[in-house]
Amino acid sequence: KVNKPKLREQLKKRSTNLGKALSLSYINPIQMQRSAFQYMYDGQGNTILDAYNNIMLAGHCHPKVVRAGRKVMTRLNTNTRYVYPEILAYSETLLSKFPQSLDKVFFVNSGSAATDLAIRMALAYSKKKKIMVLEHGYHGNTRIGIDISHYKYSQGNNLGKQDYIVEAPMPKVFGSGLKDDGSAGKHFAQETMARIDGAKGKIAAFIAEPIMGCGGQVPLAKGYLKEVYPKIHEQGGICISDEVQVGFGRLGDFFWGYEMHEVVPDMVILGKPMGNGHPIGAVVTTSEISESFAQGPEFFSSFGGNPVSCAIGHAVLEVIEEEKLQEHAKKVGDYLQSLLVELQQEFLEIANIRGIGLFIGVELLDKKGNPNTMLAHRVKNELRENCILIGTDGPYDNVLKIKPPLSFSEKDADRLVHQLHKICNDLLN
Ligand code: PMP
């Protein structure tokens, strides 16, 4: 309460100085002061449970990660035109997480920069012009990023679908009337194959997230990528897996999202959790694709792969290993899903719970089976009033997104679902 006028002042300053296209989370915006692991602390003295930020994989301000960055920052920061040990050690550890075919890495500063570079490389390698994307996919904020992100180009004053884009339907099992036993995957793959055929051998790349984040936490139907990847290869294109949201062990059973679909991509895009909040992104690809890109011109990123970023990225990988965060994500994720499934028995509006590990979506419908955007917003904002952060997304913004820092515990899961239960009781009974 003490800080209320100050918040008003800060909001005014924000609207004076920052572009209107930036948004604020929650009806009641939060002044963030500090954070540690899965907790954040606001200007009013509240401790807030973060069940939303998948970037802080190791936990907010993880001491090992902070120390690693600070240590190198006081000694040296430079770029990839010089030789220094941090980039060599980090690239070796990072590449050890991939199958042998994916043996080259390019470092950049964001998921968007990685996407942009991946598409440039795909065009250069394949000598083709078209890019195949999934409906409701999101891959980045650059011009190319928007071009290949149906989630954005279909909205507002963006340019709409460009001529070089080939859309494929979102292979979403829930609501399709099909089962996730491979039959849904086959069904969606058939439609996608027809569109590949329609593009007459001109597809340079097919890009997809293994579980679509902005699309509403939608795992691609089982078997879908297994059918589509070979078809893209057959006509001379490459397959890109966007692991920006789901990568680095969050899924519990899998370190990378493509593993759950039993495919190996030709290129992987990394970002968000890679630096635990420090801006790092990367493209990991094959020697062959990397070689074709070496024909020039030089690729240079002022900050991509600098020693400080590499030390931070390396520390994140070490923390994942040392604290067994992948196993932890499985254990807590399974537990959280079981609590949500119990909650679902009580409320018809909780129509679908999906995802894996600590990457979970809860789709809300009304009693007639229509997207319940209003309920999703009320739940999100009520949780915020009770000091718990989650998000909403999907084409109708009716999917609750739960993707916390991996330090999130079973006790935190109890607290989240207990509060959800109370809110649903208040709003629905
Ligand atoms: N790919 C996916 C799947 C994403 O969710 C995002 C960011 N939301 C990006 C790429 C772009 O990453 P960045 O915001 O770091 O540029």
From TrEMBL:
Transmembrane segments: none annotated. This is Aminotransferase class III-fold pyridoxal phosphate-dependent enzyme. One of its GO terms (molecular function) is pyridoxal phosphate binding. It comes from Ulvibacterium marinum. Its cofactor is pyridoxal 5'-phosphate. The keyword ATP-binding does not apply. Belongs to the class-III pyridoxal-phosphate-dependent aminotransferase family. It comes from the Bacteria. Keywords: Aminotransferase, Pyridoxal phosphate, Transferase. The keyword Transferase applies.
